[in-house]
Design brief:
2 copies of one chain form a homodimer. Chain A is an alpha+beta fold and 350 residues long. Chain A has 11 helices and 13 strands.
């Protein structure tokens, strides 16, 4: 059997069993945005790695090397942020075809450096090697988080509200426009959405506020696709969920793409990842307090999109018609491309 | 200009300038076996990453997946060991073609797990993604070292003696036998040397002894090629070196390969890397003490192969004839393959 037949998640489960060791210094291993390790008396060390592979995670004709360098770093920053942590140190492993232009790599590094400076990250080293295929970029990011601010995927409890910090579906809509250039949308909308895909914003400040507030119970970044990412919270927390379709913050631009595609905007919002906002759960009595605090400090509206249910009640999506349908996790999976042929930033921790 | 024209080391220097930031928590960045980071009051955190790319760093027809999993981990363990550190946590990033057999990956993980257990390492997570080319493996390894045991490449001083823990050239000789199957050597020699290439031994215990002794001034692992690795110590320490060819511990097996190739065994020993022993410097008055201590505890003979000179005296190789010739660093460089077309484990920190 090959990996495409088995599928990504069953493969990860098998590998987890092979490496599954008990170690008191490993607080959280496979299954969250980053691994959590024992560190100082008050902090945990966080560690995560993510890949950008040519023609799978990025298209050389679409992205500038500077955008790519920025993006390769920020998707990792997003993982550390989603744990409530402060990213600190990056290791960069590059495999490059011999014909790669030196200016390309320099621009890539400048983009990475800019994003690193913005996030308070220092690039500490790495590895460069030759590639026989395309460009392959792996960035490992280390960070730290005070014990009391650590937020896992596994903390959601029935009754909690589910919130997102950002509009969902913009990045994925941008990607649709890349692959379907004849879709009839406003040129400014086109440019804006494609840039949303190429230059994701990471909510490091909001993540830190949410973690420090002590009011959130679980957090994840929206990378695989909103429905998938919610599914990760449900699976790790052992809970169900009810999402209200009408509450999803979908931009008019994404709706324009959905209309042009003759697809429900809901699908772009639920299937699409790459937005790199935060999805988190909060005890119901604390929602208003946290919403207000974030809005006051960042001017940002965070939106309640659903509520956590006991696991036996399952995962549901409430449509505008009030009809409830099963919520399927239809985001990106490697080896199976469940949402099309488009290159996506899908990732899954092994 | 492309990377092949520029060459690996000038490329790294350019990238170093782009990312070159001052950060008080980064004790040692680019230019050693691992990055050294501020950690607890008594320890440093060490971090390193290394790649195994199909048909560059490994040949799928030659290595079993179990051997490869072991090797991919131990080359990183070797880097942490060469800093005097104890490796702790590994992150594994895999890019796999969709046709990769699940049993292949499982075997790879079993090999990695075995090596991890042996070195006291826990695999804490990682990333798995699809590859359009071959298999690409990146392992990031974290470790820790007490402040007083840290050994850098940069500590060698004129007058120090240069020592190695292991025979040099065996692994490279094994690789020559892979690429030149008609070379006339004893079948047992063939099998032994190829295994030495595929299953490198890491000298974690010896490295720890050397570091704890407080008698060594610099250390590196023999990975790029002995002459290259010595060159790294000289460059980082700002010193020259004199190597005595007759003192190099070359095995009768490697000599048999050299004879069959009609090449001086010296070349296999100096150019070849992949042996993963340790090369280190010691104040002359402490050499005997450290040699005895290591031999007593591990039964292992460590060999003096040269001495450190003031930088203005340069880098020299003393032949059997007593003739001195310039010591060139002729080990592996990516993009230029200075020692042939053979896949090698060459690496260079960026």
């Amino acid at each position: 059997m090959n990996v495409a037949d088995l599928g990504e998640f069953p493969l990860i489960e098998r590998l987890r069993q092979i490496i599954g060791v008990n170690c008191p210094d490993l607080i959280v291993g496979i299954g969250d945005d980053a691994a959590v390790l024992a560190d100082g008396p008050d902090t945990y060390l966080l560690a995560t790695v993510d890949s950008h592979i040519e023609n799978i995670h990025f298209l050389p004709f679409l992205t500038t090397p500077r955008q790519l360098g920025r993006r390769a770093l920020v998707v990792n920053v997003s993982d550390i942020a989603a744990m409530g942590g402060q990213p600190q140190f990056a290791l960069v492993s590059l495999a490059l075809p011999a014909y790669t232009q030196v200016t390309w790599i320099e621009e890539f590094y400048k983009g990475m450096r800019g994003a690193a400076d913005q996030a308070g990250v220092v690039v500490i080293g790495g590895n460069v090697t030759r590639s026989l295929g395309g460009i392959n970029i792996d960035i490992t990011l280390l960070g730290r988080v005070p014990h009391e601010h650590l937020l896992l995927r596994s903390g959601a409890r029935p009754g909690d509200k589910l919130l997102v910090t950002d509009r969902v579906g913009d990045a994925f809509s941008g990607l649709q426009l890349v692959f379907n250039p004849r879709l009839a949308v406003d040129p400014i909308v086109r440019e804006t959405l494609i840039t949303r895909y190429l230059e994701p914003e990471v909510r490091l400040r909001e993540a830190s506020m949410i973690a420090r507030s002590g009011l959130a119970t679980a957090m994840i970044d929206v990378s695989d696709g909103l429905s998938s990412d919610i599914g990760h919270i449900c699976q790790q927390s052992g809970v169900g969920v009810r999402i209200w379709a009408d509450h999803l913050p979908i931009s008019p631009s994404a709706r324009q793409v959905a209309d042009a595609m003759q697809t429900p905007a809901l699908r772009l919002a639920l299937d699409g990842g790459d937005d790199y906002g935060l999805c988190f759960t909060v005890r119901p009595e604390s929602v208003a307090q946290l919403q207000n605090a974030i809005e006051q400090e960042t001017g940002k509206t965070v939106t309640v999109i659903g509520e956590i249910l006991p696991i036996e009640q399952g995962n549901w999506l409430v449509l505008s018609s009030n009809q409830e349908i099963p919520l399927e996790s239809t985001g990106w999976q490697h080896f199976q491309s469940t949402n099309g042929q488009s290159p996506r930033d899908g990732k899954q921790r092994v």
